[in-house]
Amino acid sequence: MKFKLEVIGFTIESCLIAQAAGAHRIELCDNPSEGGTTPSYGFIKTARENLSIELYPIIRPRGGDFLYSEIEFEVMKADIQICKNLGCDGVVIGMLNSDGTVDKQRCKQLVDIAQPMGVSFHRAFDRTKDPFKALEDIISIGCERILTSGQKSVATDGAALLNELVKQANGRIIIMPGSGVRSDNVENLVKKTNATEFHTSARTYTDSKMEFINESMDEQLTSVTTLSNEIKTIIQLLKAY
Asked: Would the pTM of this model clear 0.90, i.e. be above it?
């Protein structure tokens, strides 16, 4: 298949759903409300033991921006080593300087620690001030792909820039559109971007199965999961394209 589909796994159940539906890779994340943070040791271990497809945990110690302190950097290095020890295929990183450039020095250290695992650069890229320079910087540190929405909130709005990035990359690195990628727009994204890898959450929410709910707590006990049919449809569309 010319195309690949990466799916975010926010729970072990969503990982298993995505694999069964035909996903090629899981980006393993915790905390969907924060945009994804580093999953726990137990989550990574269990996912690795139950998944045969590629597994790439995100290395992001907190939500918010991508300007990290030295102690946060130490956490990231330790988490990458854990992923390596647990047999992950790769990790997902992203660090910026305060001026909106890629933190090449520290990102390169993370890539070196990760070897021989693969490394993707996440949507910190969409916060850089010059995406074309950032692309070259990320290539130079040894990443294999960039997850980006084309510096817009959703990939459909950033399609023009995504196409320019694919052209500039010229096979040196994979440009992987993500954010808002769904079955109703993926064909158009292929046409407009010429990308060959795509990233989706295929996200939905399920209600709690608790029989007893304490109504005085005024809580919405929903949890995030993944739509199997949505993943299958995207893959079918990519195969047919």
From this structure: yes
